[in-house]
Amino acid sequence: MSFAHKHLMGIEELSAEDIALILDTAEKMSEVSRRPLKKVPALRGKLVVNLFFENSTRTRSSFEIAEKRLSADTLNFSASTSSLQKGETLVDTVLNLERMQPDCYVIRHASPGTCQLIHPFTKAALVNAGDGTHEHPTQALLDAMTIRQKKGDFKGLEVLICGDISHSRVVRSNIFLLSKMGAKVTVCGPATFMPPHLESLGVTATTDFERALRGKDVVMMLRIQMERQTKGLFPSLLEYYKTFGLTEERLRLADKQVIVMHPGPINRGVEMASEVADGPYSVILDQVENGVAVRMAVLYLLLGGSEDEAAR
Amino acid sequence: MKRKTLFDAAGIQRSLGRLALEITERLQGCEGVVLIGIHRRGVPLAQRIARLLEKAEKARVPVGSLDINLYRDDFSTVGAAPVLRGTQVDFDISGKTVVLVDDVLFTGRTVRAALDALVDLGRPARVQLAVLVDRGHRELPIQADYVGLSLNTRREDHVELLLKETDGEDALILESAASAARAGSEGKRP
What we know:
The complex is a heterodimer of chains A (312) and B (190).
Chain A: H1 16-33, E1 47-52, H2 58-69, E2 73-78, H3 90-98, E3 104-109, H4 114-118, E4 125-131, H5 137-151, E5 158-162, H6 169-180, E6 184-188, E7 204-206, H7 209-213, E8 218-221, H8 227-230, H9 237-244, H10 248-251, E9 259-261, H11 274-277, H12 284-303, H13 307-310
Parallel strand pairs in A: 1-2, 1-3, 3-4, 5-6, 5-8, 6-7, 8-9
Chain B: E1 2-7, H1 9-27, E2 33-38, H2 42-57, E3 63-66, E4 97-105, H3 109-119, E5 126-134, E6 146-152, E7 158-162, H4 164-167, E8 171-176, E9 182-186
Parallel strand pairs in B: 2-3, 2-4, 4-5, 5-6
Antiparallel strand pairs in B: 1-8, 6-9, 7-8
Helix pairs in contact in B: 1-2
């Protein structure tokens, strides 16, 4: 079994076998990060451009560490310091970078479909590091790696995702991934955060958090973007916490072996209580560690072979 | 394509027995010796040799496994990225005598990559190489210290070792395009 994709634009286009291969490869990559000498020459001489048009500290750092552990050369291109400030279009930026012979772009952008837009203008591999409200595939993969480590398998697993479902690319990627792997997904949040037609993605949708928590094996809490409050989507942080905050008491409704996840950064006392974030059920820091391994795996699978046969 | 079985299960086990004996002879016991198998089939071979050494010397011989795929020099020709099997060396190799174990020694490129992978893990006192089969056609200046079977082959021949642990049966098979391939003298030192 080999990886037959040239790009990672989303989870939607991957098969269950592709996902399992990425997770298996990521498990092997973890070993490299635990060595005293944390580097292998796999991507020596490859140039990876990190194109970040949206602020991101952790995702960019995680990608950059992954690239460096595989010996790729990295170029960081962020919106605030780039020529976009001078009025250059995205496509022009890519056409210019293209002449520097990059092998891969890692792209974060506020617009859904940015990878698809760039695709015709580059020969390099594209990795989506979050495009608007569309997808954030490496986040879903690192979540899956963490779930698999703790639960062994996805079949029949009851997963609850709670928070701002409408604006979350993490949710979409996770729904695609978990459904493909055989888990049962429930999403929950205030009605103003719930998009219509969620059932068409094969998930159960509810606004009753406590009821939704019952018997869940995995509870994933999403970050509440403070700026949504000014748009009137929820009245106050305290009210949000009272209805949808994950407290120790509420967590008791879930399965005894429940794991609590969060893509970070956490708002303590908004999405969850500190005692939960720091408690025995929390795997939030495992997610961070697995992020590097998953990104190493993706870069290796996309760039570690010859282009002719791997390309599709 | 002619398919010939050179060794059956008993033949492989005899060959490994002799390799183990040579290792203890040359290294005067197995004090400070660790075995590291190269994925895939070097790993079960290393485990088997370790069991033979432990039985003969009544001492524990640590066994590790090495995945060389992150150290290859032929990424541009291998097609899709090779599946990783993982490196697992749960002991410190610094100051130790490391015996690398692989099934078939051919171009020497795998061993070259294995040496790179090994030095990233520590600084062994010395590194030696044990292979079940040396089939010639080296592309790099690399030699084995312990050889089970030296085989004259044509470059286009295919030598395949099957092991119970990975393939369900033990057999050493030579697939030759013509009849020119013949078995060399067993156990010949390179």
